[in-house]
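User: Structure tokens for this complex, please. No commentary.
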Amino acid sequence: MATEVEVIFQPEGKRVRIKSGTTILEGAKLVGADLTSICGGSGKCGKCKVIIEKEGENAGSITEMEKVLLSPVEISAGYRLACCVSVQGNLTVRIPEESRTGRQRLQVEGIETPVKLEPLINKYFVKLPTPTLQDPRSDVDRLLDELQVRYGLENPKVSYNLLQRLPLILRDSEWEITVVVWDNDTIIGVESGDTTHRIFGYAVDVGTTKLAGYLLDLNTGRVMAVESLMNPQIPYGEDVITRITYAEKGFKEQKELQQALVEGINQILKRLLDKTDVNPEEVYEMTAVGNTAMHHLLLDICPKYVALSPYPPAIRRGLNINAENIGMKINPNGNIYVLPVIAGFVGADTVAVILATEIYKRDELCMALDIGTNTEVFLGNKDEILACSCASGPALEGAHIKQGMRAATGAIEKVGIDPDTFEVKYWTIDNAKPCGICGSAMVDILAEMLKAGVIEVTGTMNKDVASPRLRAAEGGLEFVLAWGKETSTGEDIVFTQKDIREIQLAKAAMHTGTMALMRKKGIVEKDIDIVFIAGAFGSYIDPENARIIGMYPETTLEKVRIVGNAAGTGARMALASKTARKTAEEISDKVTYVELAAEPNFQAEFFNSNVLPYADLARYPQTSELLEKLGKYPKKPPKYFH
Amino acid sequence: MATEVEVIFQPEGKRVRIKSGTTILEGAKLVGADLTSICGGSGKCGKCKVIIEKEGENAGSITEMEKVLLSPVEISAGYRLACCVSVQGNLTVRIPEESRTGRQRLQVEGIETPVKLEPLINKYFVKLPTPTLQDPRSDVDRLLDELQVRYGLENPKVSYNLLQRLPLILRDSEWEITVVVWDNDTIIGVESGDTTHRIFGYAVDVGTTKLAGYLLDLNTGRVMAVESLMNPQIPYGEDVITRITYAEKGFKEQKELQQALVEGINQILKRLLDKTDVNPEEVYEMTAVGNTAMHHLLLDICPKYVALSPYPPAIRRGLNINAENIGMKINPNGNIYVLPVIAGFVGADTVAVILATEIYKRDELCMALDIGTNTEVFLGNKDEILACSCASGPALEGAHIKQGMRAATGAIEKVGIDPDTFEVKYWTIDNAKPCGICGSAMVDILAEMLKAGVIEVTGTMNKDVASPRLRAAEGGLEFVLAWGKETSTGEDIVFTQKDIREIQLAKAAMHTGTMALMRKKGIVEKDIDIVFIAGAFGSYIDPENARIIGMYPETTLEKVRIVGNAAGTGARMALASKTARKTAEEISDKVTYVELAAEPNFQAEFFNSNVLPYADLARYPQTSELLEKLGKYPKKPPKYFH
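Assistant:
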């Protein structure tokens, strides 16, 4: 029989009781300790480092896995991997700074796209005649007759939960009530007195990494408050595939992931309500967007096949479900509209971005990139929209990068390299001492290294660079961005050859998508009228540096529009407008999904896209000219695959 | 602090642990012991007699209430009233035969009214193409596209619960599935392979006293099995008012009544399924009828105002609700259609009876009586239908009658009295030794006593009758139906003057209803073309004797049709046919409810109706002639109130 043991997580002091034999990581998940895990506990990422503080004998001996993933220095300092330690007795561990997800800078603002206010929630104030022997109509008939006469509302249904209490509500309110009607079809609430001036809604963007929530006044369309939170599913794995794998273990695990998400969304709502005078019962509708995996996990729909070729989602079209059904803490009779998805890897967030950027009705030819762990690329206008999904991976969010981290306090977010002296200038989030590098800086690093000649267009470091910053290390060359004396940990912050390869892979994935869509559509760079860059990450990158490394097709910078969290904008539009929902459904119908893996020249294009900015330099004339001017133009042209 | 004590109920030996201070009756409810209680434990009916067998000191001393309601003989024999005893320690009690509801004869058969088979549940078999990279449609799109192409089904919704498991079901079934669609609007089930030949439904008549259930094959319309059960709410009170009063105590109590009902309905379903090869998951729809109180209690809708003038129901129109919502053990996505009601005291059972008797489309002028604890009377044809409710009370079901009992084994169910010798011939249920009198016999007793001159048309016993059977007793005269030597208890079975008054009250209530409707409609007895007598009780009465005592307007017997449990028939029709449901809604709209208490001459009519058959004997010419022929015609005409 397994006995129960206690694990204490420092510095927060969180405690959890678990069965002996359980891993520290599982304990951390249970108690919500802030411990990162990218691979979901499969012993691959080496990110869930903890330091054993007390009763280390109960942690068992170090595993082969840990010997590979931890450095000898770390091992001697008492570091272990939380996923590798099966707890045998009480234990106290410390979660070091590098293993924390930390306070994140979460982009929640997006463009504002005007939309005609026509929410699905409507309120109608009525005074009803009291029942008499001459007029003993049923409560519902009494109500519906009045709604018909006064507002022309024809036979709406009455939500069953409401019906159960209706006789009491009507009499407690002395027959003067405000009726809450959804889509002029179903009465979902009856409130005492005249509350027609209070109609609220909640829009949520469910990102793999981040949740963003918006409380809207649906009488005015005004955003009353904005809040965000890390996705509480992160302890189950940083990417969607790891989470889907977890969900596949069984219905219990699938439900567990849903509950984590629902709790997070409820937590955001609570914060929004705390900022305002709105009660949860007054929020009668919610809209949600997210990629297809988040969509399925939020709805507790089996997500398995979303991750298996040919990646069919369970459902594409938009869904209305009852709030209580999934434990959402708005009004129990409230409705949740989940926007439609497009395909297994092109989700409701993409539909929302298309809605927000209005590509679906533009004459101009638009390309859009919604950059995240998966980057969706789409190309088109009112006539046609093509979309694909690129496995850009979590490198830009800090994973697989030696000193990568998310966009939290102390992260280096912007970098400049002097092409002559190779001296580095960097900016950190909250101006704190640097402790790692976040995605926007990585784009800068590659672009600046390229301009300074620290790397070739192939991404290979130039060992001839005469600077102490470029040095040999175990595993290859590395470049020092910040010296130990400047950093919060006291260690040098470096960017390695391997790190460059990771960013190149991410960039190549996106670029392959853009090329595939352009080829499919038979257009070239100059045909593009607008490039939209969406997503939290996208908001902080330097568009010029991104163009230099070839993250998107080379256009003039005036054509580039950074639209921030446009998915959130789309969710808000769908909340405020019935027409926007109809448009979202039409977008989902209209967009043509392009499966990159099925494209004939996918592999070649991927290799070509690894080059900075691209193997065919003629397609990046401005970048080529700049490099030439700086004297960094490659002597030997890069190899181009056909 | 209250300690826990144990009460054992003999002869079943059921045990229950309750807090000391709880009454025996509450304990009996908890453990489901077969103990009658008409007043719901308010110490008024004196029916919940138990005999203390062991540890009587824990029953406390006898209360004033019990001294009134129990005879000295009973008190000396250890009788107590279960509602008056607060248990102070362990106790063993015996439930005597007279306190048991016993095995009941429950009428469940009703007329068969042909209906075009058009159930709301339809099944469609489809083979779907498997997903490929060239065809990565979502599972739902794949399914709906095929349903559209093969069966012309346009965009049905998919039940959310089903959607959650859909990806697994489709693949486990290797894409060959039968889709279960409700109302061609919502997909509520997906079954592996071709199961189109198996479509089942469940119809339930929820009576105050009795539940009747029918399992239907919806491919053929055939009734596969029939079962019935006493309403498990009976321990909470025998009539609807007592139960509503119990429900008013709080939401918990209201829910408790619902749960009791739902468990009963589930129990019937289990028996039906056990008789056949049908699985509960294969039952996708259920219909239910019941009076308005049962309707509200089944749906856990606040029933308070149904019992308060002007008695408005919460909802009149028919309702579709999800089976899982109220814990009904058919398929969790199954639909429950609850037929519409008409008013607070004219329920869905009446709508069902009108549906089954087809009064709503007849040219003939019809009167119908659905006899029960409440008797609904309705009058009309295709042009108009008037309906009212009469508080006939539970006397005909045995309550308030000294030796009354339900229609269970040993109940005298039919009686004849020789007008010359006053000798009695009786028949009992199951030919057992008599132990009480059930309703059908009470009608006979009154009619036979009237014909034999044992009573006057006023109901007063004629003390000059020369028979040892008519004797004086405490409280007035009584008539011996069976001598002690013939009965199972060894005691004489008698019918008292007070019993006669009770039946007269019931009869007068019904008759007042019939008169009020006739007057409202401006017709007289001879205008009536058909008299329908419905209800379990109605199936066993002698129509002639019922006419003699004036239970219904005097017509020729050929015009009288006994239709049995026509409410059950209506429930089955609504299960088998969408048109029947539409008709039911139209009936609910069309029927004009007449509130008897609001009728100007209600009181006078009630007094007139107390006379057997009626104060205006000229309106009962056949009965008058018969009595005259037998020499029992009243010398002094009864008083007629205007």
